[in-house]
Design brief:
This protein is mainly beta and 347 residues long. The protein contains 4 helices and 18 strands. The strands form 3 sheets. An 8-stranded antiparallel sheet has the order 1-4-13-6-7-8-9-16. A hairpin with an 8-residue loop joins strand 7 and strand 8.
């Protein structure tokens, strides 16, 4: 009798697990992971399920796992739905990003830094050009990213990169090459996703380690769609620039939503870290003020807090008067680690 009851309990657990992985398929989205991706490491830790519409990546003490798109792209709109590791995910990192090859690679980065049960995930973003990043912005999310699938979108065109969460813009990085700011526009990139252990830095600067008794950790992916220019044999599949995303920018509604996210959910912005850049902020931060636009880093004078001197702020040799001083919760990271506090903190 005990054995029968135990078997029934196992069936219920399996059914609940399967139900938790249900992803509502979106018509028009590619969603076939066999056709679109290769498993590039941790083969036995990556599973393609539900007629290739669902991917799970798992992490245990032996290995994590990762995938890479079969196609390379030079510009496009990339969508993926993710459901992150639930519970105590401290030390784990789930990634979804675009990258070229080589040590001097270009990269457009979304990394989800795990945390203790009850604490929020941190969404870490970055942009690399020719191997150099250091353009970090971090956010909390306004929902539980482990309870359901949510859509994360990267729009990448010759003029701008826009990061979206469920259709809401959270970050814009504009092409400011006219100000000698590098911008990734010459190298095709592949889409990658992975789940791996980074407990030396991922959670509270490495102070909180991965609890392997909670393994395996599982992140789920579905509804992948690449409306993008495929790069093959040195040529682009886009014969014209008729794609709507090719010249996409934020309208007034989008700019208001961006301000809302950055006011309420941004916890670190390299463009306001004056202690990190005592000789002046990076040129793109200054250039954005010159252009009178929403900064590619979402720059505003909000966030300088007590570090804004009475006479103004020297930004690359340009004196900016601090007309709007607001203290904003910030996190600081040298490799994505998180430290609490208010105002900006040195890296």
């Amino acid at each position: 009798m005990h054995s029968s009851s135990s078997s029934f309990s196992n069936v219920i657990v399996d059914m609940l697990l399967l139900m938790s992985l249900i992803c509502i398929f979106k018509p028009g989205f590619g969603g076939n992971f066999y056709q679109d991706f290769d498993i590039i490491w941790g083969n036995d830790h990556a599973k393609i399920l539900n007629n290739a519409e669902l991917l799970t990546l798992s992490l245990d003490k032996a290995s994590g796992s990762g995938i890479q798109s079969k196609n390379e792209y030079l510009f496009g709109k990339i969508d993926m739905q993710l459901k992150l590791v639930p519970g105590n995910s401290a030390g784990t990192v789930t990634t979804y990003y675009l990258t070229s090859e080589g040590t001097d690679h270009d990269e457009i980065d979304l990394e989800f830094l795990g945390n203790l049960s009850g604490d929020p995930y941190i969404l870490h973003t970055n942009v690399y050009t020719h191997g150099k990043g250091e353009k970090e912005q971090q956010f909390y999310l306004w929902f539980d990213p482990t309870a359901d699938f949510h859509t994360y979108t990267i729009i990448w065109n010759p003029h701008t990169i826009i990061f979206y969460v469920d259709g809401t813009p959270i970050r814009v990085f504009n092409n400011l090459q006219s100000y000698n700011v590098p911008y990734p526009k010459d190298r095709p990139m592949r889409v990658r996703a992975s789940l791996w252990d980074a407990d030396d830095w991922a959670t509270r600067g490495g102070r909180v380690k991965t609890d392997w008794t909670k393994a395996p950790f599982v992140a789920s992916f579905c509804n992948y769609n690449a409306d993008a220019c495929i790069w093959l044999s040195g040529k682009s599949s886009c014969s014209s620039n008729s794609n709507s995303w090719f010249s996409q920018d934020l309208d007034s509604t989008g700019r208001e939503r961006l301000k809302w996210v950055q006011k309420n959910y941004m916890i670190y912005n390299y463009c306001t870290d004056v202690k990190r850049y005592p000789q002046g902020l990076p040129p793109e931060c200054v250039a954005s003020l010159h252009a009178g636009q929403i900064a590619p880093s979402g720059l505003s004078l909000a966030g300088f807090g007590p570090y804004c001197p009475q006479g103004g702020l020297n930004m690359g040799g340009i004196l900016i008067k601090c007309l709007e001083i607001l203290e904003t919760p910030m996190a600081s990271t040298s490799q994505g680690g998180q430290h609490g506090g208010r105002g900006t903190l040195a890296l």
